[in-house]
Design goal:
about 260 residues; alpha+beta; Protein Transport Mog1p, Chain A; seven-stranded antiparallel beta sheet; three-stranded antiparallel beta sheet; 4 helices; about 30% strand; rod-shaped; disordered N terminus
Length: about 260
């Protein structure tokens, strides 16, 4: 049976050229069709792969473009920030320079008379002539005594003190009113009250009469407020020597400067 089957198969394919051709054609057609379908499928798959690849490339390019935009934006932002910081630094430097210039100009405006010696206290300076001796002070304030007029047990003196006013809501006029009230309570008489500016510092100048231990004395005083600090410059003298020292003391007051 196997032999007949094999022969039959040969006859079917070789009975004639037409039959053979038809057989081969059918097979070929089937093969070609299969190849075409395979090719189409391959092309379709390739096209799909190409499209997918293209999409990936586009996505990659878009992501790259976005990254570049973000980087550029960040760079621009950093540059703007640096520019702003540089501008701020320049402005701060200008302000500091301006402050320093103002301070230097203010310092240069202070006229120190010949023969005077300048001393520094808590945030201020003042100069005195050779007739004055600097006294030691545990408070850190400056005190000077005149060396030629100590009579009646009273030594003419100048002292500079500071007072913290940060705990009080007070201005210059308020400070003046409180000072005058305190002098009144002590039994002293304020004979003169004038507004005065010394080296750019606005303040008040007072003249006061009083009695201490049976000695009549007079006081010259200048005070000013700055940055929650009161600066008080005071000269005290017995009545006898007051007029002779008043002009010199005013020259000393005029050297007072806040640093």
């Amino acid at each position: 049976m196997r032999k007949k089957f094999l022969l039959l198969t040969s006859v079917i394919c070789l009975a004639s050229s037409v039959a053979f051709s038809s057989c081969g054609l059918v097979e070929r057609k089937a093969s070609v069709k299969s190849e075409i379908e395979t090719t189409k499928k391959a092309k379709k798959n390739k096209k799909s792969d190409d499209e997918e690849e293209t999409t990936k490339k586009r996505t990659h390019l878009k992501e790259k473009d976005d990254d570049e935009k973000v980087t550029t934006s960040k760079k621009d932002s950093d540059e703007e920030k640096e520019t702003d910081e540089e501008e701020t630094t320049k402005k701060d430097d200008k302000k500091d320079d301006k402050k320093d210039d103002k301070k230097d100009n203010k310092k240069s405006d202070v006229k120190i008379p010949d023969g005077y010696t300048e001393y520094s206290g808590k945030g201020y300076t003042i100069a005195v002539g050779s007739g004055w001796s600097k006294l030691s002070s545990s408070t850190g304030n400056l005190q000077f005594s005149h060396m030629g007029t100590a009579t009646n047990g009273f030594a003419e003196n100048i002292n500079v003190t500071t007072q913290d006013t940060s705990a009080y809501d007070i201005d210059l006029d308020g400070y003046k009113d409180i000072s005058m009230e305190q002098y009144k309570q002590l039994g002293y008489t304020v004979t003169k009250t004038n507004k005065m500016t010394i080296n750019g510092n606005d303040g008040y100048y007072l003249e006061i009469d009083g009695v201490q231990s049976g000695v009549d004395f007079k006081i010259m005083q200048f005070f000013t407020l700055k940055d929650d600090t009161a600066y008080i410059v005071t000269f005290a003298s017995d009545e006898t020597d007051y007029e002779g020292l008043k002009e010199e003391v005013m020259n000393i007051f005029n050297t007072f400067s806040i640093e």
